[in-house]
Amino acid sequence: MSQFAQDVLEGLSATKKRLSSKYFYDDEGSRIFQEIMAMPEYYLTDREMEILQSRSLEILQATDLEESFNVIELGAGDGTKTEQLLKTFLEAGHRPIYHPVDISQEAVDIVRDRLSRNLPALEVRPAVGDYFHIMQEVTAHETPSLVLFLGSNIGNYIPPKNTDLISLIAINMSKGDYFLIGVDLKKDPTLIQGAYDDPHGITARFNLNLLERINRELGGDFDLEAWEFICRYNSENGEVRSYLKSTRQQEVFIRALDRKFAFAEGEEVWTELSKKYDLEGIEALGEESGLTFVQHFTDQRHHFTDSLFKKS
Questions:
Q1: Are 144 and 283 in the same domain?
Q2: What digits encode the pLDDT tens for the residues 215-249?
Q3: Which of 170, 176, 181, 207 has its CA 20 to 30 A from that of 259?
């Protein structure tokens, strides 16, 4: 049984049913997420782009990285934002070696093709697979590294899994390496709600694609018309929680699991957490994971930060 099948079995057998958001990002899910990032309501993309366009040189100057160094990006997406960072590094006379890492072959193909056109002087070594196995291979050499985890992906991890993840990243870094993490900050709840419950239905389609993936890969018979997407924001703890709600009583058979799963009308399946942080919480997260805080780089509205840490 595949890990995907095992996780679906465990999640749908739970008293409060859930599906892991890490399975959103098959090739189709990655394409839909590019649509999400292009939405005007999804401010995260623009705010982080602003930081990387205007503050990349400051980020570089806050490190002691010289000449050639690795830039390892965990979850590279299409590379649009990172291109700004890499362009600045090249213009400053450095020779970064870019390692875009993703679980989607299509995603790394897109970023490789994009950067070969736009930054022909840049050495690109794309990789598909497990983040930490690839990190180990790259950081085992003497060349120092800057590890990127952008886009507020850390918000998808519920405590203590957020600390566990950053700790695992830190373990696979070498002494003197740097870690730049993108984090969405707590702010006006209306702004946050609009980004995750968009009027275009793109986020709904992104979530529903997970059911379609179960149908495609595991032989499920989910009727997508019998499900609707909802999300809720808790301003006290900064958590946006997304769900798929069954609109009628139904049973779903999944051939790979040889099991039926019953869903009551109105029953919700939790699909994603998008946690928002304050600056103090980000510092604590890094330091609890064994990293030393260096500096926050925020956009002008203080909606988003790219925060720099070092492994001492």
A1: yes
A2: 999 999 999 999 999 999 999 999 999 999 999 99
A3: 207
What is the 8-class DSSP label of residue 22?
G
Instruction: State how far the Cα of 188 lies from the Cα of 43, in Å rounded to an integer.
Output: 12
How, if at all, do strands 145-149 and 68-74 pair?
parallel
Task: Output the six-digit token pair for 270.
Answer: 């939790």
Burial class (CB in 10 A: 0-12, 13-18, 19+), 290: middle
What type of residue is 234? N
What do you get for the CA distance between the two ends of the chain, in Å? 41
Q: Is 187 exposed, middle or buried (0-12, 13-18, 19+ CB in 10 A)?
A: middle
Do both 88 and 175 map to the same domain? Answer: yes
Q: Is 201 left (phi over 0), alpha (psi -120 to 50) or beta?
A: left
Cα 76 to Cα 104: distance, rounded to the nearest angstrom: 9
Residues 14 and 146 reside in one and the same domain: no
Task: Write the DSSP symbol of residue 172.
Answer: T
Q: Can you give the residue range of the structural domain that contains 180?
A: 43-186+278-310
**pLDDT above 80 (res 111):** yes
Q: How many CB atoms lie within 10 A of CB 1?
A: 10
Does 165 lie in the same domain as 104?
yes
**Is residue 204 domain-shared with residue 261, that is, in the same domain?**
yes
- Residues 65, 205, single domain; the answer is no
Q: Which pTM value belongs to this model?
A: 0.89
224 shares a domain with 179:
no
Domain count, the chain: 2
**Spatial separation of the C-alpha atoms in residues 178 and 46, rounded to whole Å:** 24
